[in-house]
Amino acid sequence: MLASIANRQSQIANALPWLDGSAFPLYLAPMAGVSDKIFRQLCKERGADVLVTEFVSAEGVFRRNERTREYLDFDQCERPLGVQLFGGDAAHMAEAARHVVDWVAPDFIDLNFGCPVNKVVAKNGGSALLKDCPTLAAVAEAVVRAVAPLPVTAKIRIGWDSDSINAPRVARILEETGIAAIAVHGRTRAQGYSGEADWNVIGDVVAAVSLPVIGNGDLTTPRDVARRREQTGIAGAMIGRAAMNSPWIFEQVKHYLATGEELPPPQDESRWNLIRRHCRLAVEEWGCEDKAMRSLRARLMAYSKAFRDSKQLRERFQHISSLAELDDIAITHLASCADVEAVVPTA
Prior knowledge:
By secondary structure, this protein is of the alpha/beta class. Helix content is 51%, strand content 12%. It has 17 helices and 9 strands. Strands 1, 2, 3, 4, 5, 6, 7, 8 and 9 form a 9-stranded parallel sheet that branches. Helix 7 packs parallel to helix 8 and helix 8 runs parallel beside helix 9 (199-208). The longest helix has 21 residues, at 323-343. It starts with a helix and ends with a helix. The model is unreliable at 341-347 (pLDDT under 50).
């Protein structure tokens, strides 16, 4: 038994070298409408070790939908990168995974068994499969076989609701199908993104399997990551919503884990430079400034949470449609912050 576990762990280390135990990788969580190529690269530059695409419909890939294929686009600088698929039909998931490997050659395939969104769950995808373990196992096993020797990972939630928390059991099932690593979001499907993540259950998953377990949920500061790592023994951390507001969190976490010291937050000017760059790259990608800037309104409002006077910024971002407007907002905000600092008495 011990020899079998050791062999399995050796295989995982070869397939997923960033999880070989010598480091503590930080993942950018896959987030629909957020973790596109531009944002992934911004996070990579700021310390994210492993990236995952926005979730992709296996049915869309299976049917060769061109819009779906756009979600698979990535640059070589993003590696290691996984493509995340969702769906409930084992045969279609396996065929879609093969297409993805042929088309873009990711470093791994990731299976979404955690999305709580109704339109995904209604199609027996995402967290719906936490209630249907036979189908979950069939999907995982089919994809593992279809793309071998490419590694397949999975992301789950701790259960469907508070009365059916089954993450340790689901993790053991996934381990038996050949899944190479598991990310666990510490909420149930019923919670959505409300309430608190239950890291005790994530710890139970770590204890239940010999696979690397990536912890996810309420990791908003470097201290959070260090505390949860110590508490649970997770092999890595996955950061989502905190990165939406502050992509620099990855470098802050790495510095804290290495030194025990917290980096000061970036200056407002550095934050604005990142936002401006994000918007310029999006305009280049879209080829239409108005459409690109309108598409970024929600992203800009997320960025605003890292600033003082965030309410006023959000109000302006709701109507933004050009890079010139963004520059005007940035200049006005930086000037107002300088004025505030100028009148604060020194000790």
